[in-house]
Specification:
The complex is a heterodimer of chains A (384) and B (265).
Chain A: E1 3-7, E2 9-10, E3 13-14, H1 17-27, E4 32-38, H2 41-50, E5 56-61, H3 70-84, E6 88-92, H4 95-108, E7 112-121, E8 127-133, E9 138-144, E10 149-153, E11 168-171, E12 183-190, E13 203-207, H5 216-227, E14 230-233, H6 235-239, E15 260-264, H7 270-273, E16 281-286, H8 292-296, E17 299-302, H9 305-320, H10 327-341, H11 352-364
Parallel strand pairs in A: 1-4, 1-6, 4-5, 5-11, 6-10, 7-10, 13-14, 13-15, 15-16, 16-17
Antiparallel strand pairs in A: 2-3, 7-8, 8-9
Helix pairs in contact in A: 3-4, 5-9, 5-10
Chain B: E1 2-7, E2 9-11, E3 18-19, E4 24-25, E5 32-34, H1 36-51, E6 56-62, H2 68-77, E7 81-85, H3 95-112, E8 115-121, H4 132-140, E9 144-154, E10 158-165, E11 168-175, E12 178-182, H5 194-202, E13 205-208, H6 210-213, H7 217-220, E14 226-232, E15 241-242, H8 248-261
Parallel strand pairs in B: 1-6, 1-8, 6-7, 7-13, 8-12, 9-12
Antiparallel strand pairs in B: 2-5, 3-4, 9-10, 10-11
Helix pairs in contact in B: 2-5, 3-4
Classes of the chains: A alpha/beta (384), B alpha/beta (265).
The structure holds flavin-adenine dinucleotide.
Flavin-adenine dinucleotide binds at residues 208-210, 234-237, 248-253, 265-267, 269, 271-272, 275, 285-288, 291, 304-306 of chain A.
């Protein structure tokens, strides 16, 4: 019995989601191996992983796997599965692997649970998962009976394990020429390098119509940089053309599950909540103290965001012992991008569960009635 | 080009009550409609049809009798005809079974008139699994590309596509036929036209059950693959606090201290 965790490589870099899968797999109490599929970067990634808590690291590497073709990735992973014979395969529920996992499940003739927020070992050692549906308003517990069970795990559902070890790398022979792959990646246009990726962000600062105009996002970016957070937005602002669609959080945008979500001038309509209400700690800044977002928030700040946001930026700098509006912002950003790209920083981050416990404790003393609209969803739909 | 759009009729609701005793969803009486994501797939199919002379768009849906409404709604938007996969043995199938059945439907359509492109929404608003389009590609042994934000170009043989990823946009070329799932960014869906509405009433919608599709029961039934143990509403979120303070600065100081306490800064 073994759990195989699939590593994601994007543009030559190992994505830290593999260490979230490691946490989930270890808790299931079975031996854990890693699978790496890719071009030249795959071998380097495997070398990293063998020293990071995986007993075995299976690598399928070929120059043709440099750009992601879903067909080729599914075939390569199938070859790894044939050699490793896992009981369960955990993959990151990223745009890449959410698209490959179904193809793999068909090739293996097995069952697939996608975008789960929890994966545990059931009594019969089969994996049991929890996944969200209907915009996060229904949680389904599902037993995956097919073998191997294919499971994609939503980013940020688990903390990242920062372990060391001395595993072994095993190469898996593949023959891509026989796959007759019909997609070719011809180019890539990266997001602006100064942006923190929403889906994997520990912290998100979002702006809504309350910003008043497109320039309002300058305030949002300032707070985001100060906190090392990604920038999110409500649909109202995206539709108004104040910010590109990829920032949209919600039912028809992306789902985020950060440890901290700061909603500025967002009323909290159900479609927006569908994308963020599973965040651990929510701070709302709004002039309307009765809007749904203020009711949902752990910390509801009643006031004009044009005054509150700069004041928070100043106070944070003060607490850090920095002069406001100087290198501080930049430093905070570097920390964020580091924590996103490097699992080495995992240890520096407070464990998700403990952060939740802390705010619960800090709230319980002065808690008020559960808000009527505060449908809390520990989880919601994912999107790209 | 023969384009097939796969659509699903789903509850037009985000709040679905759960029966606490049985752990099942109470779906009776819910309003149903086209899965919102599929509207973008329909729109893109119509746009490609308008670009490539002689194209037709077939709407394909798996679902109970009422799903015909979704097929007719898609025809009202500009699709030409429909095929409805309906059979009591299809109820309760999973993502693998649904994609298998849709692949059989496409094989039938393909045999009558070769299919160049299959379009899907990126996921459904009920299950939100996003797995049907890629799985469909695998069943057909056709390429699949998910989360597509743009068709840069398309002809009978080749599509140039932009795919959204977390860190940017991939450009791809894919040989047709292929299965593509699209995101909201790809277009702005139109409203039904009068002509479309008229057409939706009389356009042919084929009905295919397990026998017509020659579906293998073991592939349709979810039993060997997935079992729903129970469904619940999410746990309620604890109440929060209204941040105290007379001025913006006092409130901000309170928030900053909390952020520090919680180790966010
Ligand atoms: C099918 C469908 C899908 C949808 N999908 C999404 C989605 O994915 N994401 C999404 O966000 N929405 C979505 N929506 C839209 C959603 O219903 C809301 O319209 C939208 O979220 C509202 O955005 P908002 O909160 O920014 O604007 P508003 O609702 O207008 O709220 C603005 C808020 O700003 C506050 N405010 C004003 N001035 C200030 C100030 N100076 N300081 C502080 N606060 C201030 C106001 O009190 C108010 O609460 C969808 C809708 C539909 C029908």
């Amino acid at each position: 019995m073994m759990i195989l965790c699939v590593a994601e490589i994007r543009h030559g870099k190992l994505v830290s989601s593999i260490f979230e899968l490691l946490t989930a797999a270890k808790a299931m109490g079975q031996p854990v191996a890693a699978a790496v599929v890719g071009g030249a970067a795959a071998s380097a990634a495997a070398d990293t992983l063998k020293g990071r808590g995986f007993e075995k690291v299976y690598v399928a590497s070929h120059a043709s796997l440099d750009g992601q073709s879903d067909e080729a990735y599914a075939h390569a992973l199938k070859a790894i599965v044939a050699q490793a014979k896992p009981e369960t395969v955990l993959l990151p529920a990223s745009a890449q692997w959410r698209a490959v996992a179904p193809r793999l499940a068909v090739l293996l003739g097995t069952g697939l649970a996608s975008d789960v927020i929890e994966a545990t070992a059931g009594a019969d050692k089969k994996v049991q998962v929890v996944r969200a549906a209907f915009g996060g308003n229904v949680l389904s517990k599902i037993a995956v009976k097919g073998s191997p069970a294919i499971v994609t795990v939503r980013p940020m559902s688990y903390t990242r394990t920062d372990a060391s070890g001395s595993g072994a790398v095993e190469n898996v022979a593949i023959a891509p020429a026989g796959w007759k792959v019909k997609t070719r990646v011809t180019g890539f246009a990266p997001e602006a390098a100064t942006e923190v990726d929403l889906a994997a962000a520990e912290k998100v600062v979002s702006g809504g119509r309350g910003l008043g105009n497109p320039q309002g996002f300058e305030l949002i970016r300032k707070l985001a940089q100060t906190l090392g957070a990604a920038v999110g937005a409500s649909r109202a602002t995206v539709d108004a053309g104040w910010i590109p669609y990829r920032h949209q959080v919600g039912l028809t945008g992306r789902t985020v599950r950060p440890r901290l979500y700061v909603a500025c001038g967002i009323s909290g309509q159900i479609q927006h909540l569908a994308g963020m209400s599973a965040s651990d700690v929510i701070v709302a800044i709004n002039t309307d103290k009765d809007c749904p977002m203020m009711k949902l928030a752990n910390f509801a700040v009643h006031g004009d965001l044009n005054e509150i946001i700069p004041a928070i930026v100043a106070e944070v700098h003060k607490l850090r012992g920095e002069a406001p509006a100087m290198a501080g912002a930049k430093k905070a950003y570097c920390r964020a991008s580091f924590s996103r790209n490097s699992a080495a920083s995992a240890a520096a981050m407070p464990a998700r569960a403990s952060a939740v416990r802390m705010w619960r404790a800090s709230c319980s003393a002065r808690s008020r009635a559960t808000p009527p609209t505060g449908r809390s969803t520990r989880s919601t739909s994912s999107s790209t | 080009m023969h384009i097939v759009v796969c659509v699903k009729q789903t509850p037009a609701a985000t709040q679905v009550p759960v029966d606490a005793a049985t752990g099942k969803l109470k779906t009776e009486g819910l309003p149903y409609g086209l899965n919102p994501w599929d509207e973008y797939a329909i729109e893109e199919a119509i746009r490609i049809k308008e670009k490539l002379a002689g194209s037709t768009v077939t709407v394909l849906s798996l679902g109970p009798a009422r799903a015909e409404e979704a097929i007719r709604a898609a025809i009202a938007l500009g699709c030409d005809e429909g095929a409805h996969l309906v059979d009591p043995s299809f109820d309760g199938t999973d993502n693998m079974g649904s994609s298998y059945l849709l692949s059989l439907g496409i094989r039938k359509l393909n045999a009558a008139k070769p299919v160049g492109l299959v379009l899907c929404g990126k996921q459904s608003n009920d299950n939100e699994s996003g797995s049907v389009a890629p799985a469909l590609g695998a069943w057909l042994d056709w390429p699949s590309v998910a989360y597509v934000r743009k068709f840069a170009s398309i002809d009978e043989k080749l599509a140039k596509i932009e795919r959204a990823a977390e860190d940017g946009t991939d450009s791809l070329e894919v040989d047709l036929p292929a299965v593509v799932s699209v995101i909201k960014e790809i277009n702005e869906p139109r409203l039904p036209s009068l002509k479309g509405k008229m057409n939706s009433k009389k356009a042919p919608v084929a009905k295919w059950g397990a026998a017509e599709l020659q579906a293998e029961a073991a592939k349709v039934s979810a039993g060997g693959r997935l079992e729903i143990v129970g469904q619940t509403p999410p746990p309620p979120r604890g109440g929060g606090i209204v941040v105290p303070g007379a001025t913006a600065q006092e409130k901000a100081a309170f928030v900053a201290n909390k952020l520090k306490e919680l180790k966010f800064i």
